[in-house]
Amino acid sequence: MIMFYGKEALDELGILEGINEIIATTETGGRVNAAPLGIIRSEDSLYIRLFLGTHTYENILTRKWFVANVTHDAWIFAETALEDLPQEYFTHCDGLPILKDTEAWLLFKCDPFASDIIIANIEPVKGELLRKDFRAVNRGANLVVEAAVAATRYMSLRSDNYFEELMKTQRIINRCGNPREREAMERLMDRIDNFAHKR
Q: Which of 104, 129, 154 is the last residue of a domain?
């Protein structure tokens, strides 16, 4: 396990140019929350976008920090997109809440402001490489992450375009994904279906 500090941590822990999909963990009152979050890195700028009404929004607004968990487990992205993970999925490292199976973590501080959408500049503080997870690219795994994003947008905007995207994505995941990724997609669609029936 190797610790990195400041901007050196970005490249070393895999936060590269573009939008980096991570699982953000925050903690309030001893309870850890996890949610997918895109860290946008553009040359020397680093920022995030958060939306009103989420635990992540409230926690970052209050605490002014979050931990970026770097993971290739697409199931976690799908699970945390619409639900809270049980607390047994988390541990603490250097006093910070992280996913138990994360490959690396990086603490960011930020100074968000209250509005319907937060666009906050963030700054890397410190992070740790726990293990390197080498693997071939799998279309199914990547599409589960895309499906998690589409699901959150469908739930908030109720746009048929996002639902159609989810249906198309599910067909490809069923063909290309492994059993865990297919399960992640099924659980995502079940939650959307259950929510639609409650309305």
A: 129
